[in-house]
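Hi F.,

I've been meaning to write this up properly since the lab meeting, where we talked about keeping a consistent format for the predictions we share between groups. The idea is simple: the sequence comes first, exactly as it goes in, then the structure tokens exactly as they come out, then a line or two of notes. No screenshots and no reformatting. I'm using this chain as the first example so we have something concrete to point to.
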Amino acid sequence: QLQLVESGGGLVQPGGSLRLSCAASGFTLDTYSIGWFRQAPGKEREGISCGINKDGSTFYVDSVKGRFTISRDSAKNTVFLQMNSLKPEDTAVYFCTADLGPACLGDYWGQGTQVTVSS
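Output, unedited:
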């Protein structure tokens, strides 16, 4: 019943932009900390962003800072990852997560959406 569904992935050229969506059902995202993770082929899963429910703080890993932005549309119970100035090394499966606590540890996971950055 509790579910996160990502969408918006696809093929984009280097320097381009994508906006990933993460729609929740069965619970209200406003009360959860929201994280974004990615996993590139042959590499370990990497946490790239986290929005803390307790105080609204946001965090980004250095590799995406200034290029990626997390946001939410409470009315649609959906969160977003805006991805700008994409690089080939951003190619990965991207996952959203939701946590009850003030951290992004992965109480709930989406199914992932593929992002491919290539010319």
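Notes:
The mean pLDDT is 95.
The chain has no helices and eleven strands.

If this format works for you, I'll send the rest the same way.

G.
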